[in-house]
Design brief:
Rossmann fold, seven-stranded parallel β-sheet, alpha/beta, about 40% helix, five-stranded parallel β-sheet
């Protein structure tokens, strides 16, 4: 069997099921290098249901030489180029659909474009990232590994935590790129802001809400890669209003007028109109919610692992 090294920063709770599913398909060792996490949470459980090691980034190149195929994401300062340099066959786990526009990130643009062009295979978050890497000259095959949460947990009926006749929910940290200030301009009714809640509490909050709003805006150093709150909400049958700066919308899960509504990023007027539209049309809310629940069923940890396995097989066959 092909020996695979998977280099990433952490194994946060929402990734453990996906990593376990890949472990069941491949002889894979996860090299968890740690470091900061800008989105999606961090932290690694003490006991993991797959093989994991915790090397320093400087050791990744030497470590990579021991494996047949190396998969690496964009985590860390030197882990990606080290993994690429040491790999016999290389799979890039591509997660961005716009390169950050800061002086520091400018230094990484050309090296990353080289990896896009020379990786043996690329696995992406979805069609929006696939289109981006192809625009940068990707020559290897591209596979879409859908972003997923624990479908079994999030689809279980919650105990509705309801605080208003029409409940609008925002889930996330109040940082500028998350667009909470725009949402507050757009909506002067009851707004529930869910920060640090347990998964069970958050599931109950979804269950008690009429709409989840994901108002992210682009900044110089951030463009929402996906937005897993969309998956969570959809598993509860709750429609989403998203901006066009959210990967889940650009990637096709939030489909305007089908699973939710999509508005221009930063446009408080358009966002407010979309919220009021759903407030005034319960039939539309019900239709969007039902479609959302059906659409997210395909976004599973197993689907992610299957796509990663196909990318590994493609790289191995080069």
């Amino acid at each position: 069997m092909t020996r695979v090294l998977f280099v990433t920063n952490h194994a946060p709770p929402f990734r453990i099921g996906a990593f376990k599913a890949l472990h069941e398909r491949e002889d894979v060792v996860f090299a968890l290098i740690g470091g900061d996490v800008r989105h999606g949470g961090g932290g690694t459980a003490a006991e993991l249901p797959f093989n994991a090691i915790f090397p320093p980034q400087r050791a990744v190149a030497r470590l990579a030489r021991r494996y047949d195929v190396v998969v690496a994401g964009l985590s860390g300062r030197v882990a990606l180029p080290a993994a690429y340099a040491g790999a016999r066959r290389f799979v890039l786990w591509a997660t961005i659909w716009s390169h950050p526009r800061t002086p520091a990130h400018a230094l990484s643009y050309l090296p990353l474009r080289h990896i896009y062009r020379h990786a043996d295979a690329i696995a992406t978050y979805g069609p929006h990232v696939s289109a981006y890497v192809r625009s940068k000259g990707a020559r290897g095959p591209v596979f879409e590994a859908p972003q997923a949460v624990d479908a079994k947990f999030w689809s279980q009926p919650g105990v509705p935590d309801r605080r208003a006749d029409f409940q609008v929910l925002f889930v996330g940290r109040p940082s500028p790129e998350k667009g909470l200030d725009v949402l507050k301009q757009a909506w002067d009714g009851t707004l529930v802001v869910a920060g640090r809640q347990s998964p069970e509490e958050l599931r109950n909050t979804y269950a008690g809400s009429d709409v989840v709003v994901v108002p992210s805006v682009p900044t110089r150093d951030f463009l929402e890669p996906w937005g897993l709150v969309v998956n969570e909400a959809f598993h509860q049958g709750v429609p989403v209003i998203s901006t066009d700066a959210v990967g889940a919308a650009a990637g096709g899960l939030v489909q305007h007028e089908h699973t939710g509504l999509v508005v221009p990023a930063g446009d408080a007027t358009a966002l407010g109109a979309a919220i009021r539209r759903l407030r005034d049309d319960p039939d539309l809310r019900a239709r969007l919610g039902a479609n959302a629940r059906a659409a997210v069923a395909a976004y599973t940890h197993e689907a992610w692992a299957d796509a990663m396995s196909r990318a590994v097989a493609a790289a191995r066959g080069c």
